Every structure is written in structure tokens, then in C-alpha cells.
Amino acid sequence: MKNKLYIITGLLFFFTACEKEIEIGYRSVDPIHVVEGRITNEVAEVLITLTRDMDDGSGPTPQDNATVTLTTENGDHFRLAFGTDGYYQAEGLTGTVGENYTLKVTVGEKEFTSESRMHDAAGTDELYFQWLKVMGQRFVIMTFSFRDIPDEENYYCYRIYRNGENYRWNVMHDRGNDGKDITVDIVCMTEKMAEDNKEDDWDDILYEGDVIEIELQTIDKRTYDYLFSVGLSDTAGTNPIDNFTGGCLGYFAAYSTSRIHTIFSYADIVNP
User: Fold this and answer.
1) Strands 33-40 and 249-263, sheet pairing
2) What domain range is 81 assigned to?
3) 190 shares its domain with 145
4) Residue 162 has what DSSP assignment?
């Protein structure tokens, strides 16, 4: 039997749900470093930027003067080289399931460290759309399913891309669903939104032929706690919890990822 997780609580409030691109709304006046790193079964890369004053609307400044290393539990060191736009990468380096990684970033006299353990991937096996009628309105629901990894406490982050651009994201855990099939329902839009096609709704509306990809990341609890706090910080007006030592913002995650794709078509939306 599949267990259904309703990721968005309250259909009537989905317009304001923190479900889109992971936008970390840092409340900082003085410039501060932001480190966003990951090592996965696909890639190892770190983005390093410097925030600007809140009154400066030009965005963060990429940093090209950092020393970036990844270290395993047995002491293996990997140096990440600067590429472009603040990204540091190690070509050909991917993570190993069960390994605990430490990321160290040195910028001048400042040093920032974080660690994360890589867990196995949970493969996605189904992705489709369905109609759901609530209080006279029809909602388009995106549904995907996967099998939880058994006999361990698991945490997940899903990221949804529409034509290669961020569309939705959220985190969840497997509490009460150990080793079971899990189905996740995500509210996308109402039928009326699609018909009216107002500019304010373009970020939510799915269009015929849109390419949809779901990336399911198996993350550790430390990463889950951080990303969960990102969602809370958007409404609380505070920065997310610390994920690094040394006083920078951002986070580091080691995780396994699986992907599933489809092409959106109104003709394929299921009437349950």
C-alpha cells in the first residue's frame, strides 16, 4: 500500500507556500560570505559569494580567491579548483554512499567548515498529473512516488524543474513510512489560473509541452534541518540556522540523487 504525503498543507493557501526555488533571504547588512556546497553521485561543486548591503540591488559578488577542500573520514583530501562565477569544482569527483565529508573553505584569514554524510538514493518510479476539485475549484496536482529506504531514518529534498528552471522544492522525512512506497502530491495551479494566464501567475502556470523533471535527493538530518529552517526564515524574518562554523552563511550537503522526467499535457491529466 502506498502512503500519501500532502506536502502543501492547505490547498487554499498554496499561492503563498514556500515551494519554489531555494531562495535564501539572508537578512544581513554588512557583507558576509555565503558558501553553498554539495557532493553527490553526480558532481562535487561549491559556490562562494559575498553578500552586498541590503540597499544594493546588484546581487552577491562571486569570489575567486578561496581555497576549497573536501576531506573524507580516512583523511583523503580533494582540492576543488575555481571555474567561473564563484563555482569551485573537482572534475570527475563524485560521492560515496556512507562516507562522511568535511568541507573547508579558506578566504584570506577566514575559515569555514561543515560536514555531511552521504546516504543511498531512493529511486523515483512514477510521475503524473491529476485534477483535484476543492470548494468548486479544480486544482492541477503533480504526483510522484518512490520507495523509502528501509531500516533507517531518512530525509529527503525534492526539487522540481520546469524547462530546466526551478519550479518547486521542499523537504520531508520518512517518519511512519519506513521502507514503504510514498506518494507525494504537490499543488501546481488552479484551472482558472491557467485559463486567465495572468502575468502574476506565470511562475505557477504549467503550459502544454513543458518539460518537467523531479530530482529527489536523499539528504542527512543536518541538511534537512537547515533547509527546513530556510522555509521558516522566509516568514519569520530571520536567517536560517548555522550550517557552517566560522561565521559564513549557506550550507554543505552530501547526498544521492535520482531523477524522473515527463512532458506536461492537459490531455494526460488524470481524473481520479
Assistant:
1) parallel
2) 33-119+222-256
3) yes
4) E
